[in-house]
Write a structure and sequence with these properties.
This protein has eleven helices and seven strands. By secondary structure, the protein is an alpha/beta fold. It folds into two domains: 111 residues, Rossmann fold (3-Layer(aba) Sandwich), CATH 3.40.50; 111 residues, Rossmann fold (3-Layer(aba) Sandwich), CATH 3.40.50. The strands form two sheets. It has a four-stranded parallel beta sheet with strand order 5-4-6-7, with helices on both faces. Helix 3 runs antiparallel to helix 4, helix 6 packs across helix 11 and helix 9 runs antiparallel to helix 10. It is globular.
Amino acid sequence: MPQHIGIVACSAEGAALCYKTICVEGARFLGPHAHPEVSLHTHSLADYVDCLDRGDRPGVAELMLSSARKLASAGADFLICPDNTIHQAMGYVLPQSPLPWLHIAEVVADEAVARGLKRIGITGTNWLVDSDVYPEKLGARGLGFLKPTDDERDEIGRIIMDELVQSRFTPQAVATFQRVMGRMKGDGCDAVVLGCTEIPLIMNDANSPLPTLDSTRLLAQAALRRATTV
């Protein structure tokens, strides 16, 4: 029997894309229409935002652990979180977690190594870009990285929180990401991580100036591999 995947969700669009990917791509591992058992729990996004605005990583961790405990009670065998930003609290989560986790940035970094990439552009919320979530995991694998400028960070952060998480997708947002990614390409990046799980809803290899590392789908695929091979 495949293992039961628990999803600790934060924002709706990213979690929905991750869940859908697991269900649709499960057929590659298990046959037509098949996928592992999946359970999902989320607290209100506002609760997470309140903690993030205060820089309260232990508070973020407590929300994640609350979801983890509920998912463990529901029978999950391991956990994933389709939200890059709140991975900055994993140092508080892992020592107390009732279940093991896959780490989204580790999954992305491993994929970058497998593709032979060298320098990765980072996109995401202000909280993510200001954190060590990706620098730590990329650096541990000998990969270089480049962050957005302050102005780029602020505009991308606004688009994510005011538009993408609210299911608003505009040509202007696509153009902003294309401009930032084009600048990163000019500064030596050979790929860009879509480091907010909503960004893949508007950006992909077809419209990006750089090859993309889709954190949402890569995490879902890693969860499928774990669930079907253990």
